């Protein structure tokens, strides 16, 4: 029954991790929730995520439970630790006894701090989406490794990490398309304003629309202004009409 309950909680956590296409999304808070789920599902003292670009840590997020402990242990890994090992290999780092690792001089800075925080065991799994590695999820446990449950715990942590990687990647793709959509909309709006201004000047001066456009363009170039800004001034009636007309008569540009 205990395992069935954990499976339900894991399923709920995975669904939450997939929900990144929302307004007000904040990556650190999102990764903290993933870490919180990891702590609850694995009975850990704390957990945290290190996002990595190349070999450089770029962002840290920790569980709300013992947050400062987790952040301190993540910070201690800048010179080496389970997160960097997992990221470097693309594979999980199975549960490791902190005392044994410390005695073997494995991750000396990290294990020294972990002992100070009464962490007994640690393990890490990569945050990955197919071949795209984003970082690692690190779990800090107050008890010795349980060899009978080690694989199960790694699988749970990896499922959460995979869901987080997918959520972050989807969020990044969504943000790119949203930015592109905004740029296209801005370009379309700018073009509409330019066409409107061109038509207004052509009608006002009784000239061909191409000549009105050349006047707009020449004026923008001479004053080093965006063409859209000049068009907006025409539409709003605040442009220097006399100077614009001089550009119309003096321009030798070919029609656009």
Q: How does this structure look, described?
A:
By secondary structure, this protein is α+β, with helices and mostly antiparallel strands. The chain contains ten helices and five strands; from the N terminus they run H-H-E-E-H-H-E-H-H-E-E-H-H-H-H. It has helices spanning 2-18, 27-42, 67-75, 82-89, 98-103, 108-116, 150-205, 209-223, 227-236, 241-250; strands spanning 46-53, 56-62, 93-97, 121-129, 132-141. The protein has a five-stranded antiparallel beta sheet, sandwiched between helices. The protein is elongated, with a radius of gyration of 29 Å.
Sum up the structure in keywords:
single chain, 256 residues, alpha+beta, 5-stranded antiparallel β-sheet, 61% helix, disordered C terminus
């Amino acid at each position: 029954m205990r395992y069935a309950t954990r499976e339900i909680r894991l399923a709920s956590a995975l669904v939450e991790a997939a929900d990144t296409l929302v307004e007000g999304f904040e990556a650190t808070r999102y990764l903290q929730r993933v870490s919180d789920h990891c702590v609850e599902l694995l009975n850990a003292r704390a957990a945290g995520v290190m996002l990595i670009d190349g070999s450089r840590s770029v962002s840290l997020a920790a569980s709300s439970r013992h947050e400062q402990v987790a952040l301190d242990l993540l910070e201690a890994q800048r010179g080496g630790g389970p997160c960097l090992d997992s990221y470097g290999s693309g594979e999980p780092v199975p549960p490791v006894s902190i005392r044994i690792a410390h005695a073997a001089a494995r991750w000396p800075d990290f294990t020294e701090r972990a002992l100070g925080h009464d962490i007994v065991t640690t393990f890490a799994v990569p945050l990955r989406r197919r071949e795209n590695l984003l970082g690692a999820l690190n779990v800090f446990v107050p008890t010795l490794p349980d060899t009978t449950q080690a694989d199960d715990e790694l699988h749970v942590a990896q499922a959460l990490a995979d869901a987080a990687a997918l959520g972050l990647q989807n969020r990044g793709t969504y943000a790119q398309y949203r930015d592109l959509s905004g740029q296209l909309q801005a370009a379309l709006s700018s073009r509409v304003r330019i066409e409107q201004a061109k038509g207004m000047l052509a009608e006002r001066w009784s000239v061909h629309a191409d000549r009105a456009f050349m006047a707009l363009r020449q004026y923008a170039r001479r004053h080093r202004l965006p063409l859209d800004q000049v068009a907006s001034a025409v539409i709003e009636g605040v442009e220097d009409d006399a100077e614009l007309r001089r550009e119309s008569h003096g321009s030798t540009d070919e029609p656009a």
